Queue: 4 jobs
Job 1
Amino acid sequence: MVSRTGRHLSGLALAAAAVNFAAAGASATGITPSRQAELTRLVRQDCGSCHGMTLKGGLGRPLLPADLVGKSTEALAAVVLDGIPGTPMPPWRGLLSEDEALWIVNRLTGGLDR
C-alpha cells in the first residue's frame, strides 16, 4: 500500500508541474503558446532525464518548488543558460533565450505571473 501511494504521489507531482507549465500565458513574456509547449517538452524530456521524470532528482538535483526556495530567479536562470562547470549540468544558452530561461524557472518555482 505504501509503495502504491508513493507512485501516486509521484504522478501527482508530475501533474502539478505540468499544470504550472500549462497555466502560464504568453502576454507577460512574449513567449508564444507554441513555444511554451516546446519548452514544457524540453523540461519534461531533457531536464527530466537528469533531474528525474517527476523532477524529484536523479543525477541532477530536485527541481520541485520546495527545493528551489531561497534561490533567486535570476541565479536559477543563469544556471539554466550557462550550466555548472565541472558537473553534468550543460549550458542551454545556445538553445534558449534569457526570457525562455526565466519562463522555465518561473514555472519550476511555481510562479505563474512572472
Job 2
Amino acid sequence: MDKVFVKGLRTDALIGVYEWEHEQRQPLLVDLTMDWDQAAAAASDELEHALDYAALSQAVVKLVESRPRQLIETVAEEVAQLILSEFQVTTVKVCVSKPKAVAAAQTVGVEITRSRS
C-alpha cells in the first residue's frame, strides 16, 4: 500500500493534567502516516484524486486547538478518528509529541495506529 505522510505538524494546545497547563498553550508536534492508493493521482496529476494533505493538516490543527485536553493519548485518538472519517483513508498512524513535557527529554509522546472497521 502507498503512504502519504505529514511530519512535524505543529499545533499550540491547552494540554496537560496540571492547572497551569490550561492557562498557557504548549506546542504539540503531530506526525501522520496514512495508507492511500496513489495510482489515480499519479495517472491524472489532479488534486481531486490525491489525499489533500494541506486540507487534512488544517483540519487536524483546528481539532487539536479547539478545546483543552489532559492527555496526548486523547489527542492522538481524536486525530485518528477525524482522519478515518473525514478523509477516507483506510489506516492511519498518529504520533503526538509534547516537547516541553519532561525537562530532561527532547520530547515525549504516544503513537497509535487505527484502521477503519
Job 3
Amino acid sequence: MSETLLEFPCDFPLKVMGRKDPGFRELVVAMVEAHAGPVPENHVRLRDSRDGNFVALTVIVHARTQAQLDAIYTDLSAHDRVLMVL
C-alpha cells in the first residue's frame, strides 16, 4: 500500500506546461476528463509565458484516488505536446 498525504476525494491542482499551440488547452482538458469526468470551465486557468511561446495550464481535478491521479500524470507526461506536468 502506497502512502499519500492527500485525503480522497479532493480537489487537486495539476499544472501542465507546453508550447503555445492551437488546441493545447482542449487537448489537456480532454485527457484529464478521460480519467476524472467533466471539468468545470472555472477549474481551468491558462497563463502565457513572458515571451508568449509557452503556456501553463492549471486544471483543478476532483480526484477520487491516488491511482486516478497517477494515471492522469502518466498520460499527460507521455504526450508529445506536453513539456512538463506538476
Job 4
Amino acid sequence: MAHIEYFFATTSPFTYLAGTRMEEVAERHGATLKYRPVDIMAVFPRTGGLPPGERHPARLDYRLQELRRLSKKHGLPIDLDPPYRAVNPAPSSYAFIAAEKAGGGDLGKLVQAFGGAVWRDKRDIAEDAVIADCLQEAGFDPGLAGMAMLQGAEQYARNLEDAVSAGVFGAPFYIVDGTEKFWGQDRIDDLDLFLAGKL
C-alpha cells in the first residue's frame, strides 16, 4: 500500500485549485495520506524560490492567467486579488493540526474550506471565527479554533524542517513512499498514473 505525504499551504491558490482530486486518487489506489501544512513563504528562501511579490512581472502575469484558467477548468471560483491572500497561515495550520488529532471530520474538505475562504469568499483565515466556520464546514468541532496552539505550533515547525529535508519547494507537493515527488496540482494525473504502475 502506497503512502502519500501531502505538503500544502492553507493560503496557496494552487492548493485550493487542487480541489479534492488528490484524495480521490489516493482512495482509488488504497493509498494512505499524511497531511503536512507548511509555511510556504518560509520554504521559498530555503529552496531557491521567491515569494510572489518578488517575482518578475512576466511570471506574475502568467501566474494570474494560469489561476484563471485552472479556476474554470476545475469549476472552483477564484478571486484573483483577494484582500487576505497574504494573511498569516499559522493559525489555520495550527487548527488543521488540532483537527487531524481530534478526528471526526474530512481533512480534504478542511484544506478546501481554508483555501475557499481566502480565494473565493474573501475571508481572513487568521481569525478564530473564520477558522471555526471552516472546521464546521469540514465536519470538525468548531471549538478547536484557538485550541492546542502550542502543540500545533511545534508540529508546524517540524513540518517546515521535514519539507525542506524532503526536497519540497512549492505547494501543493506530494511525495509517495518518501521518494517519488510530484509538485503542483497539475501533477495529480501523473500521481494517479504512478500509483497505477504506469509511470
